[in-house]
Amino acid sequence: MNDSNSQSTFTPREIVSELDRYIISQSKAKRAVAIALRNRWRRQRVPEPLRDEIYPKNIIMIGPTGVGKTEIARRLSNLAQAPFVKVEASKFTEVGYVGRDVEAIIRDLTELSVQMVRDEEESKVQARAQEMAEERLLDLLLPQPAATHSGFELPRDDEEATARAAAQAKAQADSHDSTREKLRTMLREGKLDDRYVELEVKDSMFPMIEVFSSSGIEDIHIKDMLGNLPGMKSKTKNRKMKVPEAFEQLAAEESDKLVDMDNINLEARKRAEESGIVFIDELDKIAGRQSSSQGPDVSREGVQRDLLPLIEGSTVHTKYGPVRTDHVLFIAAGAFHVAKPSDLIPEMQGRFPIRVELNALGKDEFVRILTEPDNALIKQYEALMHTEGLDLKFTDDAIEEIARIAAQVNQSTENIGARRLYTILETLLDDISFRAPEMTEQEVSITGKKVNEELKDILESEDLSRYIL
Ligand SMILES: Nc1ncnc2c1ncn2[C@@H]1O[C@H](COP(=O)(O)OP(=O)(O)OP(=O)(O)O)[C@@H](O)[C@H]1O
Ligand SMILES: [Mg+2]
Fold first, then answer.
1. Between residues 4 and 196, which one has the greater pLDDT?
2. Structure pTM?
3. Which residue owns the Cα nearest ligand 1 atom 27?
């Protein structure tokens, strides 16, 4: 549990090159986030009391939709091995939200941090937990003989008989031990995987809610509330399950016993405070001119005022204890088409000193996005079709054509950035996706000509493009 594994040690150059694996272009934004991340590492090495004076330089990423803002933040958080939450600022303008709800952001961040630290600690004790789980599983598969000595025969005052009984007991124990070892071997070889054992399990009325790392974390507070109700998790019942499942269950129980939850909570709170990253999407939606005194603008400014304490530094009470937000890094993003960063309230502007613009994407970027990233769309489709035994190939001119069409449709209808590639590829491959299991060909080559033929009709009608592409 030291800082070295809780903070990424990448240099800015290394961070950028990692981001390059997934995001094309946008080098200014990559640089800015790389510097911000490295600065946290630097800050950790500055001696007190100056260290506490160094606040993160929060960032606003400005750029049209679908050009990689969220993607950069998401990949950054993976690199940083830092607790990361993403929220939509506009969510706080919705009816029903009240000011204090913004604190849920920090609670979610802490929850994730706890989960991260717990996972790390559990992986440290995993081997030990599995050993103990194996012993317990063997106990279940082969219960100890009720009494090692056959007690009821003993009271006879007969030395020979006593010796005989002891020998018998020993033989029984030996044979038990050797059976146990045989079972152990079978267990490890997976030969008992179809056997059932009965285990005591927690009988919770509510299923655990999964916590995801970079999205979908908004629902955690439900678990927060339920988890706090006394007796909610304490009921148990017996359940029959197969050996592998029982092993998992027992290993988890043993692991729970081996890790020190108090320590985990402490470390997790520290990690949320020192390395946490909060990504606020759609910041522009809460940037309104103050001049208009009516309508949604009032609540927009209200949301900024609610967020401000978090961003300026305050203490949020979580079920794991208080968490200070002074050093949490905030990365905001927005299109800022209408509202500008200067439309944010001054305190907010001051807290986001770094502004980076992301550029709109054109045909050349699309060609690269289609093919270069580790998770490039073309690679995805090829892999998907490969599972059907189909060798899907795109010629270079097909890629060019797809990119060109994407750029064209973005221009003639609405510019949705790289997201356009998804809709175009889906339309293009619709037929193959449907028929793949029945196809007798082993190889399908998509050429530029084919791309044109498939999409021609749709492209000729702007109305159709609007709906389909
Ligand atoms: N520069 C890029 N390089 C590679 N892929 C990209 C790039 N920009 C966008 N994409 C892809 O397009 C999709 C949408 O991008 P992303 O979610 O980052 O958009 P965004 O800029 O956050 O837009 P919005 O303002 O609508 O939230 C992502 O799945 C991503 O893979
Ligand atoms: Mg986004």
1. 196
2. 0.76
3. 65
